[in-house]
Amino acid sequence: MSTDKQSYKDKKVMTIGIISEITGLSQRKIRYYEERKLIFPERTKRGTRKYSFSDVETLMEIAEQIEDGVQTFEIKKEMAKKQTRDERNKMIRGQINAHFNIKK
Description:
This protein has helices at residues 16-23, 27-35, 53-67, 72-99, and strands at residues 42-43, 49-50. It is mainly alpha-helical. It has a single domain (3-103), classed as Multidrug-efflux Transporter Regulator, Chain: A, Domain 2 (Orthogonal Bundle), CATH 1.10.1660.10. A two-stranded antiparallel sheet has the order 1-2. The longest helix has 28 residues, at 72-99. InterPro entries: DNA-bd_dom_put_sf (IPR009061), MerR-type_HTH_dom (IPR000551), MerR_fam (IPR047057). Residues 13-81 form the HTH merR-type domain. Keywords: DNA-binding, Repressor, Transcription, Transcription regulation.
């Protein structure tokens, strides 16, 4: 996705301290979710983690599921299923658009 067309929600501009304040999650917990490959911050050249508003939403969903007793490996499995569905739906939309010559 090019930076020009990237949604403001997906721009990685916030540090872990800000994310911790917004979500109420400790920085340690946020790093743990990254270790478990549930969240994927970008890194600056100096190694600072940068997060987006989409990451905030993901972290809040993870926190709610953890509160409900869902294990991190189960969350990761569900996230992978959702990503596969989203990719399949995007491909199908593209095929339909191509078939009917629909331009975005």
